[in-house]
Amino acid sequence: MQALIAAPDTEDGIRLVEVSEPVPQPSQVLIEVRHASVNFGEVRYLGFQPAGSVLGYDAAGYVVQTAADGSGPAVGERVVAFGAGAWAQRAAFATDSVAVVPERLELAKAAALPLVGITALRTLRAAGSVLGRRVLVTGASGGVGRLAVQFARLGGAYVIASVGSAHRGEGLDALGAHEVVVGLDRISEPVDVVLENVGGEHLVTAWGLLKPGGSLQSIGWASGEPAVFPPNSIFAHGSAKTLQSFGDASHPRPELTTLVDLAARGVISVQVGWQDSWKRVGDAIAALLGRQVPGKAVIDLD
Ligand SMILES: NC(=O)c1ccc[n+]([C@@H]2O[C@H](COP(=O)([O-])OP(=O)(O)OC[C@H]3O[C@@H](n4cnc5c(N)ncnc54)[C@H](OP(=O)(O)O)[C@@H]3O)[C@@H](O)[C@H]2O)c1
């Protein structure tokens, strides 16, 4: 079968090659992958992947072999999955990281959901109820951001979406943002929750915008810039403000089930801003790192 592997000797750092078939563990299903998605972290840190390893984490396709332990979906089911080795014609996934995709949802859209959706759901939930609260989403134009805006709005929040330029903010109001702002300078009132994707200066400024008792969920560091906190800027009168890390996408079947259900019912919109053959994955990577993809990049295993 064919797969996209880490190839540090190439310009893109990726090569489409023939590899051996995966051998599922007893608790894994084998999936024929039809679509996969490209995540920022996977491509920004591509150079850290061991040469020859099969890349990718988000996939959607059909079950071709059930798990030996009897768990998980049956052969022929349409599924979405999260786990290493997704950019391959066939991939093995733990059944606790797989969910059945409802008929009404296209597989390509399902493939866009796993990592960004698990992240947006888990961090917003970690921040507690947002009903009637002010939520700031930074890097709102990206994959995590476009879902986080929708989830915060669904949760009853007043949603502020921060982007890098007016063009990058297009469509965020329709997704539920009450305000779309370029940068963070024009936010005059404090917020209760921040879902922070950019890092660097954004992290420092967003911390300063947080109310006493507020929660900042540090999701990503897309800027790659250092964050310099002025002396005493962490001190705050009143209830403690918290800065919480996120890095746990394990056992995500419940979240995957929620994501595909919400998308199938039209409660959330899956924003695919780039879709083409996996032979053009280099273009997807360039577009993503160049901040040109509104939402997700999806590759078709054609
Ligand atoms: N902790 C975890 O487990 C976890 C899980 C998923 C994602 N992440 C991280 O979360 C971040 C967002 O992920 P994503 O999938 O949403 O990525 P994405 O789709 O590429 O979106 C990232 C957004 O960040 C903004 N951005 C990029 N470079 C920037 C820069 N130099 N300065 C300011 N803003 C910049 C861009 O918005 P504008 O173009 O509008 O500025 C872009 O839309 C990434 O850092 C990713 O690695 C972490």
Could you explain how this protein is built, in words?
It is a single chain. With 302 residues, the protein is α/β, with parallel strands linked by helices. The chain folds into two domains: 2-112 and 270-300, Medium-chain alcohol dehydrogenases, catalytic domain (Quinone Oxidoreductase, Chain A, domain 1); 117-245, NAD(P)-binding Rossmann-like Domain (Rossmann fold, 3-Layer(aba) Sandwich), CATH 3.40.50.720. 22% of the residues lie in helices and 29% in strands. It has helices at residues 40-44, 107-111, 114-126, 143-154, 201-209, 253-264, 281-289; strands at residues 2-6, 14-18, 28-38, 58-65, 78-82, 90-94, 98-100, 134-138, 158-163, 179-182, 191-196, 210-218, 242-245, 272-277, 296-300. Strands 3, 4, 5, 6, 7, 14 and 15 form a seven-stranded mixed β-sheet that branches. The chain has a six-stranded parallel β-sheet with strand order 10-9-8-11-12-13, sandwiched between helices. Strands 1-2 form a two-stranded antiparallel ribbon. Helix 3 packs across helix 4 (143-154). It is globular, with a radius of gyration of 19 Å. It starts with a strand and ends with a strand. The model has no long low-confidence stretch (mean pLDDT 97). The structure holds NADP nicotinamide-adenine-dinucleotide phosphate (NAP).
CATH superfamily of the largest domain: Medium-chain alcohol dehydrogenases, catalytic domain
Summed up, the domain count is: 2
The N- and C-terminal alpha carbons lie at a distance of 13 Å
Tell the overall outline.
Answer: globular
CATH domain class name of the largest domain: Alpha Beta
Largest sheet: 7 strands, mixed
- Taking pLDDT < 50 over at least 5 consecutive residues as the criterion, the unreliable ranges are none
How many distinct helices? 7
- N to C succession of SSEs: EEEHEEEEHHEHEEEHEEHEHE
Class computed from helices, strands and strand pairing:
alpha/beta
How much of the sequence lies in strands comes to 25-35%
The ligands bound in this entry are:
NADP nicotinamide-adenine-dinucleotide phosphate
CATH topology name of the largest domain: Quinone Oxidoreductase, Chain A, domain 1
What is the helical fraction, as a range of percent? 10-25%
CATH architecture group name of the largest domain: Alpha-Beta Complex
Radius of gyration, CA atoms, in whole angstroms: 19 Å
What integer is the average pLDDT? 97
Number of strands: 15
Domain Enoyl reductase (ER): 9-299
GO molecular function, one term: oxidoreductase activity
Pfam family, one: ADH_zinc_N
Protein name: Oxidoreductase
